[in-house]
Amino acid sequence: MPRLTLKRQLLIACLLMLLIPWAGLQFVLELDQALRQQAASQLERQTERLAGIIRRQPEAQLPLQPLPTRILYADALSRPLYLDGYGDDWPTWSEETDSAYTSPVTATEPVQWQAAVDRQNLYLLIRVRQPPGRYFDPGRPEEPHAHLRLYLTLDGQRHTREIRTPAPGPVVAQAKGTSGSSDFRVNGVWQATGQGYQVELRMPRPALNAPVGFEVWHPDTGKSGGYSVLGGMGYDGSKHLPHLIHPISALEAELQPLLAAGQRALVLHDNGWVLADGATPIAASETDFDQLGPWQIVEQIALNGLRAVLRRFQPDPTPLPEDASRYALNTIPKTGLVRHGDDESALVVRTTVKSRGTVPVTLVMEQSLNDILALSGDTLGRVIVRSAFFVGLLVLILLGYASWLSWRIARLQRNVAASFDGDGRLVQRMPASTAQDELGELSRQFSHLVDNLQGYTDYLESFARRLSHELKTPVAVVRSSLENLKHDTPDVAESPYITRAFQATDRLSQILQGMSEAARLEKSFDQVEPEIFDLADVAGQATAAYQSLDPEHEIHYVGPSAGCMMSGSPELIVQLLDKLVDNARDFTPKGEAIEVRLEDQGVYWRLQVYNAGPPLPEHLASEIFNSFVSLRERPQEGHLGQGLQIVRLITAYHRGQVHARNVLNPAGVMFDVMLPRQSPTHKK
Fold first, then answer.
1. What is the reported pTM?
2. Cα distances (angstroms) measured from residue 55 to each of 59, 249, 270, 281, 358
3. How confident is the model at residue 684 (pLDDT cuts 50, 70, 90)?
4. Taking a C-beta distance cutoff of 8 angstroms, is the pair 572, 681 a contact?
5. pLDDT digits over 19-49, tens only?
6. Which of 55, 164, 248, 332 could make an S-S bridge to 136, C-beta 3.0–4.6 Å?
7. Positive or negative, the Cα torsion across 198, 204, 205, 211?
8. How far apart (Å, rounded) are the C-alpha atoms in residues 496 and 478?
């Protein structure tokens, strides 16, 4: 797990500031909801006003029927149709289905039809997916033939007209009967198709809610009278015709001026058929990206993204068909959101308009959410931009402050680390900070602690020299007194007590000499002049001398015989080897090996002394080079660990490093002395 630094802690704290844009988003969502509620309230009030207009519109007051009534619905035309027997100019024409019909053909109902009206005419488009069998023969008019029967109510009177033709082409309606007169008000075109035929007719428009119908008659020898009704919208079992329903243009014209931009008013028959459909679209604001700069393009993309975010948090709209002629009333909510096809969501308010003795109609008011989305999206954008700016600014300030604190703490750490060397010895005084805060106080406390430690270290380093100086005279007095006693009193000269007193005096003298040796060595550094010498020659000759003086151990040199030139003091190097080899003899069993090794390490020479003695304790590997630290267990040796301290002093004079470590193959202890090739440039 990564270390939780001060910067990371502050970064985690900075992440909490992301609650600011989250709170801004919640505010904008509440604002969007409030705007929708306000728009819905306004829409309800406008719905009440429009309902009053519908009640005053005579054409919208359709009389109640005693029995359920079938509806023949005709769409409103925005332009006249060209009668050619094809349906490609009808408003319901679809390129995908290559048809103008909204209902599919079935085996039981091979007749498809579509109706439309303009201000004066009613249009019918009828397609029969079955061959006519026999066309009308003027020479034998009584023979059964394929024809259409129209049932019209014009000026309050019922009319029955037949559409028949001897061959595909223009047709004119005939009064019922073999010798009926022609009615040129009803005309059209009969066209043959691959599976049957299609007829496009135009006739005077009957009144709204007037009984209207048609039937397709084909010759059928199995029926009495020679005919069968193939399909259509004619008389039902109760001898009732469908009633014509179509959009009321007068009502649409009256509602249209009262609709604001983005509003739509639907007036639906009790069966869901559209009686009026008025809308005031929002002015299209198409964006030409070719004329926008990079920042403007980014702004447009961002606004679209913000609006998409708001849509995600809005209630799911109820899907409705797009530009339909009939709606299922139970699918339209009384209040809420709806969506027509792929259009934008819209607020909706539905109410039922009732009058005595008339068919109830339903008024559906819709209000586009584009304006609300634009306002909410712009507000959300401003909130996010400002929140991001302030959050970014606060993060930068906190990270900058954390970096400043981290830099001060790291500087304090570097100052403390620079005050001590690798062996834990104090090498320089720690500077005190002048800052008046807690870190400044901590720095001053550390500086005071280092100064106290320096004084204590100086006292300990001078303690051996002072103690040696103070004890030399008493030891000399004791020794001279023992010699005088031995000389003046011959009978006690051979006493074992006198012998032990002399031995103790010798040990004290040896201890005092060792304690003062390090101090004398440090003073001698000022008089040492560096010279160029061959380290391999010095190490080899010294090792040979050690072997001749100590036949109980195998002391030998491993390394080059010559050519290892360095700058320094050969006498001090010999003294360093004396102490290391002397230390090795004390811990190496008789007959075991002691090796002096020399290796080239680039800018350093590595001088090693190996002994086969017991391993060093891990916690004392670096402390054995300090004074008064010894691992010898025999007290009669009178050793206080001054030898390895001298090794450290000589190594430091040559700007080197000395370490002790345990080795496994072969088992023992290795002392590594790293000596640079360059000569010392300063005196110690």
1. 0.56
2. 10, 15, 15, 25, 10
3. very low
4. no
5. 777 777 777 778 777 777 888 888 889 899 9
6. 164
7. negative
8. 17
